């Protein structure tokens, strides 16, 4: 509360917050008492009015002063100024002293100050209870301590014995540890050696794997080659069987007919008034016929008597005492020179010799018989000569001759296949 002449400050209890009325002893604290209170606390400074410079009581400053001696304390004195001039300043100084005293009390304990009387009594009751509990705990601790001191000797002996045993066990374990370390070193060395051997074996295994892969690759190639060779062999056997069943002479020398003409490999052998055939074609047909009879005789190792067939394409001939051609160019020379007729007669003689040799080997008979320069059957014989003969009969005689050759070709082919 503030008035024109008085200022009142109220302190509150720090526990119940009720306003407090300070004891009058706190309003007049001497310098010596304050120093005793603060001597143990280095963090608390003196009140501001004590740290102010001293007042010169004899100063001529127009202020009326008087000195009052404190009989209870001869070491201190208080200078009082004129009440009208220093009342407010003294009040403020007292408030600051009280506040700093409360701060000192709060710093030196766990309880905040100031406190009212009821809170103080309650606090005393609480502290008394705590003190009694602490005394009980202290008595209990003393009892336990006495028991422990009594058991100390027995416990110490047992512990000493246990320590000795543990030390002996420690020494034994240390020896075992040294042995284990030595064994570990030996095992480690052996392990390193085994690891090196393992590495060498792995490298050798890799090398062997590479070699194995190489040989497997080579084996695969060989198997593939063997498979190819087996396939080729099977194919060759099939072709051989096919060739064995094939009449090679019939394939090389294809004898057939074209109307009234007998043909060999497509060449007509003969001439007709109604169908003129070039003499070059007739000569070529005779060359194929001579080659066929020559090949059949050679295949059966047959030797002709008196004559020798010389196959020479379209200029083939019969070799005897002289050369008898199996070719002609036609014209007037054909009628003036009889060597072509004699060559055909000699060829027919060679054919008769070969057919007779075949008939002697079995009961086989050819469809047409040969009698010197003629060939035929029961219906009639036809001359193979051109002179004094018609083209129709000459062509028919040549056709009969080719038929006998085809039969001979078939017989020789079958005999070769049977062998």
Model description:
The protein has 419 residues and is mainly alpha-helical. It is 59% helix and 10% strand. It has 9 helices and 13 strands. The strands form 5 sheets. The chain has a 3-stranded antiparallel sheet. Strands 8-9-10 form a 3-stranded antiparallel sheet. Helix 8 (339-360) runs parallel beside helix 9 (391-418). It starts with 10 loop residues before the first strand and ends with a helix. The model is unreliable at 1-7, 42-55 and 65-82 (pLDDT under 50).
Task: List descriptors.
mainly alpha, 3-stranded antiparallel beta sheet, 9 helices, 13 strands, disordered N terminus
In short:
With 419 residues, the chain is mainly α.
Strand order, largest beta sheet? 5-6-7
> Major beta sheet, specifics?
3 strands, antiparallel
Name the poorly predicted regions: 1-7, 42-55, 65-82
Mean pLDDT: 81
User: With helices defined by DSSP (H or I, 4 residues minimum), what is the helix count?
Assistant: 9
Integer-rounded radius of gyration: 79 Å
Question: What is the SS-derived class?
Answer: mainly alpha
Total beta strand runs: 13
From the N-terminal CA to the C-terminal CA, the straight-line distance is: 160 Å
The portion of residues forming beta strands comes to: 5-15%
Overall geometry: rod-shaped
Helix content: 55-70%
Element string (H = helix, E = strand) = EEHHEEHHHEEEHEEEHHEEEH
């Amino acid at each position: 509360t503030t008035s024109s002449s008085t200022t009142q400050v109220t302190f509150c209890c720090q526990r119940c917050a009720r306003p407090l009325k300070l004891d009058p002893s706190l309003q007049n604290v001497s310098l010596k008492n304050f120093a005793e209170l603060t001597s143990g606390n280095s963090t608390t400074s003196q009140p501001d009015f004590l740290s102010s410079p001293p007042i010169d009581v004899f100063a001529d400053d127009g202020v009326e002063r008087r000195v009052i001696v404190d009989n209870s304390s001869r070491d201190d004195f208080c200078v009082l100024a004129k009440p009208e001039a220093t009342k407010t300043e003294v009040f403020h100084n007292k408030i600051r002293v009280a506040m700093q005293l409360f701060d000192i009390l709060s710093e030196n304990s766990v309880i905040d100050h100031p406190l009212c009387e009821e809170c103080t009594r309650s606090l005393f009751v609480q502290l008394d209870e705590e003190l009694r509990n602490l005394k009980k705990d202290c008595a209990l601790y003393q009892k336990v301590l006495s028991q422990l001191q009594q058991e100390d000797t027995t416990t110490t002996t047992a512990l000493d014995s246990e320590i000795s045993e543990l030390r002996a066990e420690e020494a034994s374990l240390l020896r075992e540890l040294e042995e284990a370390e030595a064994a570990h070193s030996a095992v480690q060395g052996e392990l390193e050696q085994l690891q090196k051997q393992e590495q060498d074996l792995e490298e050798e295994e890799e090398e062997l794997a590479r070699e194995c892969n190489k040989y497997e690759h080579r084996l695969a190639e060989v198997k593939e080659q063997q498979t190819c060779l087996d396939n080729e062999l099977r194919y060759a056997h099939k072709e051989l069987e096919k060739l064995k069943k094939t009449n090679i002479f019939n394939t090389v020398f294809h004898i057939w007919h074209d109307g009234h003409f007998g043909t060999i490999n497509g060449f007509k052998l003969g001439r007709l008034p109604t169908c003129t055939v070039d003499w070059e074609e007739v000569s070529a047909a005779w060359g194929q016929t001579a080659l066929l009879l020559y090949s059949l005789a050679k295949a059966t190792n047959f030797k002709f008597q008196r004559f020798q067939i010389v196959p020479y394409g379209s200029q083939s001939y019969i070799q005897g005492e002289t050369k008898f051609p199996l070719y002609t160019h036609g014209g007037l020379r054909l009628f003036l020179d009889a060597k072509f007729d004699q060559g055909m007669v000699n060829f027919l003689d060679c054919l008769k010799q070969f057919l007779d040799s075949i008939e002697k080997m079995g009961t086989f008979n050819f469809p047409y018989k040969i009698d010197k320069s003629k060939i035929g059957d029961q219906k009639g014989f036809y001359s193979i000569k051109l002179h004094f003969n018609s083209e129709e009969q000459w062509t028919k005689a040549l056709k009969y001759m080719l038929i006998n050759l085809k039969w001979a070709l078939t017989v020789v082919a079958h005999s070769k296949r049977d062998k």
